[in-house]
Amino acid sequence: MREFLSVLLALGMAACTAPAKDAAPAATPLASPQRIVSLHSVLTESVAALGSEDRIVGTDVTSKFPDTVKDLPKLGHDKAIRAEGVLSLSPDVVLANVGQLDPTVEGQLRKAGVRLMLFTPENSIAGTKHLIAQLADSIGRHAEAGPVATRIDSDLAAVVPLSPSPKVLFIYARGAGTLLVAGAGTPVQSMITLAGGTNAVTDFSDFKPLTPEALVAADPDVVLYFNTGADDLQGNDALMRVPGMASTGAGRTGAFVRLDPVIMAGFGPRIGQAIALLNTDLARYVKK
After folding, report:
1. DSSP symbol at 165
2. Are 25 and 17 in contact (CB under 8 A)?
3. pTM of the predicted model, to two decimals?
4. Where do the domains of the chain lie, and which CATH numbers do they carry?
5. 26-38 per-position pLDDT tens digit
6. Confidence class of residue 203 from pLDDT cuts 50, 70 and 90?
7. Rounded Cα–Cα distance for residues 41 and 267 (Å)
8. How many CB atoms lie within 10 A of CB 221?
9. Cα–Cα distance measured from residue 230 to residue 220, given in angstroms and rounded to the nearest whole number
């Protein structure tokens, strides 16, 4: 579960990209690589959505969709990824985010002659489409980028305005003793906003430990958490035992929404679907 928090903190759930210094401009399609190593879940999903799923030969541990990548060699996560493991798969191209890999590993991959393409994430729908377009050019799938972007827009068309906008708190749970909440500038906040909600905490950035005082002050109408976190907490009853929860609007109404971290952990080609699902969940708890 820790890997998903790392995704949320580092990502983007949306992804605007800038190609690495050795990447060709988006207007110049590259020869289609036959062996792709993808070291980020959003990049992996995007490659698959662009029709090159069968060319992925290895991924990082956060890449869990589509199902076909689950059994591929897993190369670790972020700074723990080592060049030896990547090179053992004889890739034509390696995809990762800027700042994700250890600089020494980057240097080793480049020295070995591997084409390393790095992308800079941004939390927005426009950024996601830009990522897909850049990535499509990078792997010779330019024609497929438009249909993927169209599907995102089609999924987003299902999102309905929520009035009043519910106050939403995202809790990352790793056992009842370790609870973090998402503040301003996080990918989670972007998703909540796009789904029609309002982040219940904005007085700090990134993720911070949840305190009873902060929980009561935030007074969320809805609490979100990953279903794996729910397993750690042994379900909604455990959330009700969190100090201060019973005094919140969410606690009084039982407005707890379990999220699937595989679809909610990044702004990739399924972002429209993820936002629409969250919008439906939040709509159930809008105050009439």
Report:
1. P
2. no
3. 0.85
4. 15-156 (3.40.50.1980), 167-283 (3.40.50.1980)
5. 334 456 899 999 9
6. confident
7. 10
8. 23
9. 18
